[in-house]
């Protein structure tokens, strides 16, 4: 059997950003704002990744880098119920529009429904990417590619060394499909914001009831307000043993999580105050994959760096703060290595530029949860605001590389910091 596919007319850009999750959005905006001709490629039909298509409830954690705070401010202006009030709660529709406006203002070319397939390389240097969409196979050349795919698909195809999941056994955090319910009595409603939030009711403590009543591996209660009255976002489906880099495994996760939703709705109506008349109003079109590949960079951020709030001289992300959010790898709830309310480190930490620069491979930057970091450190820096900070740094670095006509690994980090600050 022979497959004949010819790819013609390679379109050239300064910078290509693969993936439009929070890291990719920030990377493309900052690359465009700093003068680089930028293409943003996304496999879904909307930009935003897990923050929009994933129907994420809210931004957790924080970061000093600017673009995250700009996104919050601009999204707040669109909120019809509380206009101008900046909130971490997400309206996926308004956030999508906010992203599009910011990308267009930065002169970023957006290409949706386009899936990354392979890299174009000369020796150990990435020169572009090959994608597939309704036009067939297509190729795009660039001086720098920013890998914001989450799973590091570009870095993987480029041959950057990596480990999967937890260093000891390769196991990864579970997958979740978010959904929203309406008909909630907001005056009486319970909002359990973490695994460690215990809510005592006449019928029992809710986390314990969830472990007893919900089908495993579901078994916890995470409920969040939204920007719309009467609407609550549910983070309660759970699929363990999932490999987010394998299509069959992701499909299995999608099916498992969707089949859990009716049982979760029954649970909410029967056991959770304020939810007696709730009903589903929508579910995510993109399943949330928390962890896959951790790539090897010039530097690696560790759990100890976060616990000590290390202030690196060569930082490109600053004032990053979030707990170790490790979901149970084998069941529901929080993993024994995770901590949320019990996380005592209050200071912001930094992420050095070397975590974004892969070893040996040129023309490529890592951005988002795929940077060079340990399993435990990843459980903190995977938070969306911090991923935006990583994207901001990657976009600035890529544009500087083009402007100065040097490799990304040879950039003076002080030049990045000058723009970041």
What do you see in this structure?
With 421 residues, the protein is an alpha+beta fold. The chain has 2 domains: 11-167 and 291-420, FAD/NAD(P)-binding domain; 175-289. The protein contains 10 helices and 19 strands. The chain has helices at 22-33, 66-76, 92-105, 153-158, 206-213, 247-271, 303-307, 375-381, 384-404, 413-420; strands at residues 11-18, 38-41, 109-111, 115-122, 125-133, 136-147, 162-164, 175-176, 179-182, 200-201, 204-205, 223-225, 232-234, 279-283, 288-289, 293-295, 315-320, 349-352, 364-366. The strands form 6 sheets. Strands 1, 2, 3, 4, 5, 6 and 19 form a 7-stranded mixed beta sheet that branches. Strands 12-13-9-14 form a 4-stranded antiparallel beta sheet, with no helix packed on it. Helix 1 runs parallel beside helix 3, helix 1 runs parallel beside helix 9 (384-404) and helix 9 packs across helix 10 (413-420). It is globular, with a radius of gyration of 21 Å.
Q: What is the oligomer described by this structure?
A: single chain
Cα-atom radius of gyration: 21 Å
Largest sheet: 7 strands, mixed
Number of helices: 10
